[in-house]
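can u do me a favor
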C-alpha cells in the first residue's frame, strides 16, 4: 500500500477543511487500490455530532466532484453513480430492525463493483456485512475532530 494510504495513527482535524482533506485522501486510496472491485463496506462510527455525515459527503464529493450529497437520514440510503461503480451512502440511525435492510435489497446492492459508506453500522448488525474499513470520529473541540481509520482488508 502506498505511503499516503497508510493510516497508522489517529488524525486530528482542527476544522472542516482538514476533515475534507482526510476524506479526499481516503477516497484516492480507494480508487488507487480498486476497492470498488471488491464491493467495499466502509463503516462510520461516532456519536451524534462527530462529523460522520460531513466525512461521508466529503468522501463522495472527492469521488464525484459535482455531486449534491444529501443526508440519507429519512431515506435510509442514497446512491451516487461514479465511473468506478455506485456509492451507496447509508444512514441507519432510524433503522428499527436490521432485517429492514433485506427489504430494501441490500444483498443485491452489495454486488461489486460498489462502495457502501454506512453511518450507524451497529444498527444493521447481523444483516450488514462486516466492514472492510472503519472510520471512527470523536469530538476534540468546537470544530476539532479526531478520526481513526482502520483498513481491515487487502485492497486489490
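np, heres the sequence
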Amino acid at each position: 500500500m502506498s505511503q499516503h494510504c497508510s493510516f497508522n495513527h489517529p488524525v486530528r482535524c482542527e476544522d472542516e477543511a482538514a476533515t475534507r482533506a482526510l476524506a479526499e485522501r481516503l477516497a484516492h486510496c480507494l480508487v488507487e487500490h480498486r476497492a470498488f472491485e471488491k464491493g467495499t463496506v466502509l463503516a462510520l462510527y461516532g456519536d451524534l455530532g462527530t462529523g460522520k455525515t460531513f466525512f461521508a459527503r466529503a468522501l463522495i464529493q472527492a469521488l464525484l466532484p459535482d455531486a449534491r450529497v444529501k443526508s440519507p437520514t429519512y431515506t435510509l440510503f442514497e446512491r451516487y453513480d461514479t465511473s468506478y461503480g455506485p456509492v451507496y451512502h447509508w444512514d441507519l440511525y432510524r433503522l428499527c430492525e436490521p432485517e429492514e435492510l433485506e427489504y430494501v435489497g441490500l444483498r443485491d446492492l452489495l454486488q461489486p463493483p460498489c462502495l457502501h459508506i454506512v453511518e450507524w453500522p451497529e444498527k444493521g448488525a447481523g444483516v450488514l456485512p462486516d466492514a472492510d474499513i472503519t472510520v471512527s470520529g470523536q469530538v476534540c473541540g468546537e470544530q476539532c475532530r479526531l478520526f481513526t481509520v482502520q483498513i481491515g482488508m487487502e485492497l486489490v
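Residues 16-32 form the longest helix (17 residues). hope that helps!!
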